[in-house]
Design a protein that fits this description.
The protein has 459 residues and is an alpha+beta fold. 55% of the residues lie in helices and 13% in strands. Strands 3, 4, 5, 6 and 9 form a five-stranded antiparallel sheet that branches. Helix 1 runs antiparallel to helix 2 and helix 1 packs parallel to helix 6. It is globular and about 65 Å long. The protein starts with a strand and ends in a 9-residue tail after the last helix. The N terminus is likely disordered.
Amino acid sequence: MADREGSTIFGEARRMLRTSGAVGGIAARFAGQRVFGIKADKAAHAEDLKAVLGGLKGPMMKVAQFLSTVPDALPPEYAKELATLQANAPPMGWPFVRRRMASELGQDWESRFASFEREAAAAASLGQVHRAVLHDGTRVACKLQYPDMASVVEADLRQLKIALAIFRRMDSTLENEEAYVELSDRLREELDYKREAAQQKLYRRMLAEVPGVRVPVPVDELCTRRLLTMTWLDGRAIQARIDEDPPQEERAAYARALFRAWYVPLYGYGVIHGDPHLGNYQVRSDAPENGGWGINLLDFGVVRIFPPTFIGGVIMLFEAIRDGDFDKAAEAYRIWGFRDLKRETIEVLNIWAKFLYEPLLDDRVRPIQVNDDPMHGRRIAEEVHAGLKRTGGVRVPREFPLMDRAAIGLGSVFLRLGARLNWHQLFQELVQGFDVNLLAEKQRVALAEAGIPDPHPAG
């Protein structure tokens, strides 16, 4: 019996039994604090929650990582612990993999490959990757989804909804219902590997002329909703290279490629990659077009396509912060999806906007963050939270989470890299002469060529 395609009620029930103890325990402790004045040790309980969720296959870990980067989406004690979760699901064994591959490609699936490695090369929250070679010698990566993941997603989302409702009762400063809807839609889309293959094609088109960025090619005849086969790209984990203390020139090359990989699609096509996790790209030293160093962009499951007018609002907010134009900022927030904002609320939101846009306003070579204080961003978030609480709170629009995730996630990578660039100049190269109608046409053509339906058709 299924209430969604591929999602069984029994599968969801099993998942909820495994997660509900942690979420329910938090609920009980919050209730005790609220009703009886019992002081909850949120730091200890957050450690318990991380231990429970970190051992599960599925997106609850991914959601937790996501929320940990969005200021005040969760209490800081929880955000700190959940941010350390890694995709550590145990791999499927060979007998299981063989059955799963047969269910996707048929009983003779092995004949379609010259070789297929039995041991997984990598594991993630939704599936695992195996190396293989096609008969023409092409090396490929086969990303095979874990079984029953639709049930896992639905069970996790129900638990997440409960957890967010509990937090909302404790602190209503940020109304997060719309953010939950956005996360739910993106996670459900991520289950469809045929969709991800199309989004991979979209990114290959958008980034074709971007120096230092490489995107795999999907092998259509070997792709299904639960199997994504793509060309194998050689590369290294970025953290491993950082640990070797590379020269500044190399650090800057990686940062420049990453900046363009995320923001050429956004400002040129209205598309954003919503998961700047370190595991979603690699570094390489064979990109002469970018000073000798480049990146591989690997995962395209979390992608958001914005209306062209929204991108105009993003640029408008930059201009408002640059010029100190309050009325323009108010209009930009309206385009972003914020509603019924008071003047005091806009002034508080501008504190956050100034923090995000500050590197883009400074026309010089510099690190992404000028001061060395690792808690600077957290302090800004706390200031914004206190201000929003004072002014009556705000409803977070659906458009906000992935934009914020990209900005904060990439910023943290640039911080780790210690890269020094003229961020202002990089940004201006992308938005100079911005025309919303031109973007709309480029988006329409690119989506059509990738086989992706236009989510915002004219009229």
